[in-house]
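Dear colleagues,

As part of the handover before I leave the project, I'm documenting each prediction I ran so the next person doesn't have to rerun anything. This entry is a single chain, and its sequence is reproduced below.
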Amino acid sequence: MKVIGKVVAAAIGFAVWQSAFAADVTLRFHQFLPPQATIPSKAIAPWIAKVEKESGGRIKIQNFPSMQLGGKPPDLFDQAKDGVADFVWTVLGYTPGRFPKSEVFELPFSTGLAEPGSRAFQEYVEKNAMDEFKDVKLIAVHIHGPGLIHSRDPITKLEDLKGVKVRGGSRVVNIMLTELGATPVGMPVPAVGEALSKGVITATTIPWEVVPALKVQQIVHNHTGFSGDKGLYTQTFGVLMNKAAYEKLPADLKKVIDDNSGIETAALFGRAMDAGDKVGLSLAQKAGNKIYMLDPTETQRWVHAASGVRDIWFKEVAAKGIDGPKLAADAEALIAKYSKK
């Protein structure tokens, strides 16, 4: 009996010890890419580890990649808003019309490297577009690096794009593809690999960063980039938290979340994108793929052809009472500010 008593006492003691080190709160982070992809592995995982460490283990964040909590990528914003997940990482363009002010960063040939662009985007949103995130707690926004085209057939001049079925990742990117003469096909990024393999599309707009996760370098063997320091297009992203989950936290744990929100978190995600671009490019080179960097003259033809997108966007947002030219000028000034650093 004494032995049994000692065992029970030890078990109770262990339970008390374990509970003393248990998290005060467990939160769920949901996103659409596999865990080995760039942002999940190089930005989300380190961010989670940092939050958990700075909370002294009182916050535990469960990581759910590849839409494991259900739904489709376009559902992620609402999942954060409604509390299906406590945190999400999503493409803002997956919910068309919801972020009209933020769309300015998607205008053609606007941005280059992801880290300075992400810093600029974060400051821009904080100054101009926080109302678009009123239903959630904004952790950070960011962008990817220079946008380019990956295709089955070589695209070495503007005419090569005419009638080509190209995946577009947002409303603004699809408008741009139409202006360039392509046939846009909208779809979230996880669907790109299968769509290319089956011939639903014959080209796609994605940055180098996401190429490895989708194995695009194995499916198509031509990649078209542009001269200068700006990419053809940009996609915008958000790291968002459920408001109620944030409000339930005690003040010191709210501070941990706040300390891991804002411009430095935006920069963390941007740096991961820039590093991922180098990996994706390297894999395409190792595969022996053709990489076409269009010269300045040809690039300017694309710039001119895509210039109508701004006028279309200005007109659309004006109908919503938004001063598009003013926002575009502010975005350009912030991009220039952070690109100089």
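The chain has two domains: 2-96+114-143+236-274, 148-233+277-339. Residues 73 and 219 are 23 Å apart (CA to CA).

All the best with the project,
I.
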